[in-house]
Amino acid sequence: MTTLPTPLAPAGPAPELDSGAGPAPRRAGRSDPSAGRRGTTRPPRTAARAKLTPYLFLAPGVLLFAVAILYPITQAVTMSFFDWKVIASATSEFVGADNYVRAFNDDRFWLALANSGIYMLLTVPPQIAIGLAVAVLLKRRSPAQPVFRALYYLPVVTSWVVVSLLFKYLFADAGLINFALGDVLHVTDGDTSWLANRWTALLAICALGVWKGVGWSMMIFLAALQGVSRSLEEAAIMDGANRWQQFRAVTLPSIWPAMLFVVVMLVIGGFNVFTSVLVMTGGGPGGQTEVLLTYMYQQAFEFLDFGYGSALSVILAIVVFVLAVVQLRVFRDRSGEAYA
Amino acid sequence: MTRSRIIAVALMAAAALTVTGCSATDTPSDGAVTITFWGSYGNGGNSTQQDALNDVLIPAFEAEHPDIHVEYVDIPYDSLLQKLTTSAAGDELPDLVRADLGWVPQFAELGVLVPLSQEMEDFDELAEATYPGVLATNFYEGEYYGLPLDTNTRVMVSNQAALDAAGLSAPPATFDELRALADAVKGTGAYAFAENKLQAWNIMPWIWSAGGDIADSDLTTSTGYLDSDESVAGVQLLVDLYEEDAIPNLIVGNEGATATSDGLPGGQYATILDGPWMRGVWSGQYPDFDPVYSTIPAGDGGSVSVVGGEDIVLTQSSANRDAAMEFIRFTQSELFQIEMVKTGQMTVIPAFAGQQNEIEPFYATFASQLETAKNRLAIPDAAKVDAILQEELVPAFEGTISVKQALANAAAAIDPLLPGAK
Is B239 an interface residue toward A (CB < 8 Å)? Predict the structure, then answer.
């Protein structure tokens, strides 16, 4: 890192550095001898130095990526093939694919994977539907619009731990949800132990996930909606399309790339559910609400079984990766249709 | 300033911050050594123990040893184990740790602890002064890796008002009396008994009191012990009460239920099992609550509770072992032990027990319970045993399998974790 500033610093106010992301054609022009002669007193930049410049700009990002992402990933993959000893001085035994075989024969792993999948399935569609609906409503200019935009986005920037504790109290036996359902609405007896049963507990955790995530998808959709062509909308109105037809034929195809982005990110986020489960149920009762990451956390940090924990996280990474690729394929085909 | 200059300066500033961030020093300017001590004395929102340590004990030690500074770092109990683990991996452990007695074999197995029985010349002398049952929690493969710091046990704590409402004058003293209490509380709106979890700390008192056990004394097998008729009887008592709605579903891990620490003073729970530290917690949060302490209801095996407490251990990361061991000696002194008694910690040295009960008569119940209290499995995989018990026993409470079957499943899962079976 320390070598980085040196070649850049003496370059002084080089004009091509100001042109941002797309300087390639201009830089080619610069290395042309005639262009060099145009520079008054300063010596012409050498071709080698010009070639180096983009790499130097990439270096900090690449370095950060290598240190913070790439190295931990390779380390986790390596660890998953060992009976990993946490202490550096201890020798870890190579066990081949044993950790993976163990996972596939582990009922608790399948339960955790299923719970992660259920969470994903129950949280992604509502986040998209509600997020899009709110974005469409907030698209209209009104004095209250910024206030509502901030309010809907507020849960996104709030700490997971804080809101998980909040939802834990809401769904507690003597919590507000039971009070509302029992004493106010008289729908139930008001004595539901939400967090004591696998399905009701997952429902509570999903409710938190949706509430916290809607603001994020709303923000993306709101930005995408600004890009919908006004002339297309007007043409649709001229053709006599009603609101719903406008939305289906004009708006939806126009924001399709944003939709793809939101779906892929939400699916990844759904499988990565962790804090809310750890705080709200701790995986209980009896491990029935354990999700993949809490199970991995238990194996690695409570039992110090880092090899198995790493194998579980590698499996999760593969599942998420495959799902992302499949979604990109499916969406690419669909978007082609939509535009045709 | 040009953009490139700004980038250069920013990069250098970032590099400078990174470098200085890593360079903490161990030696203060006056030439004295600093030893770091991690613990969770501040647990439970009660600072009296931490205050005693920081304001009385450490100054007293430093006055006696002007060349040693002691820096105590308080870490919440719930995150201490994880912090120790990551620090062990990074070789960044402090000199001394106040470790839950269940963790010592786990960390000894990792090789991050110094075997005190080898390193300290006066170890035998210090060890002999402590309760043997508590000392035993430091033993791993032929060596002792720590010394007991404080001990405790669980006794029955009752809410007199809830007992009165059920028409009982005294807390239940036997299994049968607890069953009677369950019948008597019906209609009063209170539960007869409440428990937070189904781990060894929670259920072993009932299994031992019923005459059962979790494994043989040589730690070769759990099957035949944990699923014996006696062990089944202990757990069956709880399952029966659960089915009668005399125990809340907190016991199976309902995080939404009222915690025992709130439910007992609130009168929702007539009885719970808990340790001596709760007095300090309740005196702050429920000043009007007057808890009644009694020994655990007796079954066919008597009234047998579980030993808890903390050990002090020296880590391999320590650069100042002699200074750290000097502090370990200090923790075994009368000054340290008695000062901690005043804050709710029970002494590990029987010679001070009389003095302890004089200072706080309330300890008498705990002291007599300690006489028969037993250790949980002192094995590196103790955390797995807890997870197994919790997960295998929940179905028995939910009524999907029998207690016998649940305990047999748990025993089969625990068998391979026992060192005698490996």
Answer: no
Range of the domain at B349: 30-152+308-372
Q: Are residues B293 and B319 in the same domain?
A: no
Does any CB of chain A come closer than 8 Å to the CB of residue B78? no
Q: How many domains does chain A have?
A: 2
A124 and A26 within one domain: no
Q: Distance from B44 to chain A by nearest Cα, in Å? A: 17
**Cβ-based neighbours of B315, under 8 Å, separated by 6 or more:** B88, B93, B94, B95, B96, B97, B112, B113, B114
Question: What pLDDT score does B343 carry?
Answer: 83
pLDDT for A245-258, tens place per residue? 988 889 999 999 99
**Residue count (chain B):** 422
CB-based contact B328:B314 (threshold 8 Å):
yes
User: Is A86 within 8 Å of B381 when comparing Cβ atoms?
Assistant: no
Contact A115/A294 with Cβ under 8 angstroms? Answer: no
Task: Say how far apart CA B300 and CA A197 lie, in whole Å.
Answer: 34
Token output for B21: 């961030």
Same domain, A205 and A56: no
Query: pLDDT digit string (tens) for B357-407?
Result: 898 888 889 988 988 888 898 888 888 999 999 999 999 999 999 999 999
Contact B394 A193 (CB under 8 A): no
Residue A87 in domain: no
Highest mean pLDDT among A15-19, A83-87, A206-210, B44-48: A206-210
What CATH number corresponds to the domain at position B193?
3.40.190.10
On the question of pLDDT at B49 being above 90, the answer is: no
Residue B25 near chain A (CB below 8 Å): no
- Alpha carbon of B30: minimum distance to chain A alpha carbons (Å): 34
Residue in A1, A194, A288 nearest the CB of B11: A1
Indicate the pTM of the whole model.
Answer: 0.80
Q: What CATH number did the domain enclosing A104 receive?
A: 1.10.3720.10
